[in-house]
């Protein structure tokens, strides 16, 4: 009510000031019509602003009447809400113009501009009337695993580099023992390095953090467990920085009571590995190599990996020459999915499954002589990095 009265007084004062200004200038001499028009233009602008923002008096209930407090509090908020940016801009312009022209109503225009500015500030503090625009839109949830379908030529190290996680994390999450990937296989790529874990009955945050050597606070925050801390059996969580125990890693074989020493005909290197009891898959239509031989297996494994080779490369000792003639890259650098070949006699070929630069190379082979795999049996194991790059092997990519 007081605000509306003040605005009405502003209009009356502005009108009186203009009339006095016109009379005074008339006594001092002739005044141009442009000056008079400017006066009336500013007067009409201010009058319009006040008229637009004018709110009729609202009858306020008595103090003891129901709802009195609510109405009394709502009235100033409504006034603040009705102040627009256009009104404030127009009032500021009127104040500047009248002050620049040294008009008698300059003070009144300035007062109105200041009032509208205050109302605008009040509106910004009212969370019920102001909704700030969201300048930065939230990105996709960075804590969700990515589902990826492999294509020919994909390897675990390449995907790890592309998505910014370790190769070990991807292999753990998908129970993979090889860095080479078959095309068309859907794999899960965790959002951070660590362990993807399926909660079991009786698990607690403390027990999981302790078992996987993880930071408890980071585990809680990453999986939004701050409020409830509840772990539902069957739920899948991510353990950032977690370390998978040896007996839970892909390819783990429990030690047996008796050990078998594998034959090492080269006399160099230390070998470890095992074998599968049989190759149950049928031969591909194009496989022209002897069943159960190393060449037969290498052909089949490359077909699985989406990198087929020729059917008539001869015995293993000529594969490097045949591969180069067919346009394949042949060099001394081991890489996941490459064929490892060496000469001597009929020669031998194996498949590079994983590469740990500077440490070791993991291979798989059929009818091999070092990892316990005889005819039609697949052996697998590690050879030292020094031997792998010594020059005694050629790698067909």
Structural notes for this entry:
With 397 residues, this protein is α+β, with helices and mostly antiparallel strands. The chain has three domains: 2-124, no CATH class; 146-247, LysM domain (Membrane-bound Lytic Murein Transglycosylase D, Chain A, Roll); 272-396, endopeptidase fold (from Nostoc punctiforme), CATH 3.90.1720.10. It is built from twelve helices and eleven strands. The strands form three sheets. It has a seven-stranded antiparallel sheet with strand order 5-10-9-8-7-11-6. Strands 1-2 form a two-stranded antiparallel ribbon. A two-stranded antiparallel sheet has the order 3-4. Helix 2 (33-53) runs antiparallel to helix 4 (85-100) and helix 3 packs across helix 5. The N and C termini lie far apart (87 Å).
CATH class of the largest domain: Alpha Beta
Give helix % range. 25-40%
- Amount of beta strand: 5-15%
Taking Cα atoms only, what radius of gyration do you get, to the nearest Å? 42 Å
User: Kindly, what is the distance between the CA atoms of the first and last residues, rounded to a whole number of angstroms?
Assistant: 87 Å
CATH topology of the largest domain: endopeptidase fold (from Nostoc punctiforme)
What are the main properties of this structure?
3 domains; endopeptidase fold (from Nostoc punctiforme); Membrane-bound Lytic Murein Transglycosylase D, Chain A; two-stranded antiparallel ribbon; seven-stranded antiparallel sheet; 397 residues; 38% helix; alpha+beta
């Amino acid at each position: 009510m007081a605000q509306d009265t003040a605005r009405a007084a502003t209009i009356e004062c502005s009108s009186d000031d203009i009339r006095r200004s016109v009379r005074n200038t008339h006594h001092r001499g002739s005044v141009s019509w442009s000056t008079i028009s400017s006066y009336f233009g500013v007067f009409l602008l201010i009058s319009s602003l006040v008229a637009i923002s004018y709110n009729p008096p609202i009858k306020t209930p008595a103090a003891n009447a129901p709802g009195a407090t609510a109405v009394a509090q709502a009235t100033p908020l409504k006034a603040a809400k009705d102040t627009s940016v256009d009104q404030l801009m127009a009032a500021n312009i009127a104040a500047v113009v009248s002050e620049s022209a040294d008009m008698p109503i300059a003070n009144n225009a300035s007062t109105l501009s200041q009032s509208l500015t205050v109302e605008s500030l009040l509106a910004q503090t009212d969370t019920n009337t102001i909704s700030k625009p969201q300048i930065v839109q939230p990105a996709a949830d960075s804590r969700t695993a990515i589902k990826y379908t492999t294509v020919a030529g994909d390897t675990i190290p390449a995907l790890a580099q592309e998505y910014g996680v370790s190769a070990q994390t991807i292999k753990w999450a998908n129970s993979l023992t090889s860095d080479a990937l078959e095309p068309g296989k859907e794999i899960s790529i965790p959002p951070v390095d660590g362990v993807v874990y399926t909660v079991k009955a009786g698990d607690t945050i403390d027990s999981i953090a302790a078992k996987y050597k993880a930071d408890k606070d980071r585990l809680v925050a990453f999986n939004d467990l701050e409020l409830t801390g509840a772990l539902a059996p069957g739920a899948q969580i991510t353990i950032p920085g977690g370390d998978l125990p040896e007996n839970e890693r892909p390819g783990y074989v429990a030690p047996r009571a008796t050990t078998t020493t594998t034959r090492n005909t080269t006399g160099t290197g230390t070998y470890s590995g095992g074998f599968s009891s049989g190759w149950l898959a049928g031969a591909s239509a194009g496989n022209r190599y002897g069943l159960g031989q190393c060449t037969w297996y290498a052909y089949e494994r490359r077909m699985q990996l989406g990198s087929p080779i020729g059917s008539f490369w001869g015995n293993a000792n000529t594969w490097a020459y045949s591969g180069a003639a067919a346009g394949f890259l042949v060099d001394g650098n081991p890489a996941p999915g490459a064929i490892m070949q060496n000469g001597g006699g009929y020669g031998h070929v194996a498949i590079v499954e994983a590469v740990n630069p500077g440490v070791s190379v993991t291979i798989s082979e059929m009818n091999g002589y070092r990892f316990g795999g005889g005819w039609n049996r697949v052996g697998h194991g590690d050879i030292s990095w020094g031997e792998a790059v010594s020059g005694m092997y050629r790698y067909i990519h």
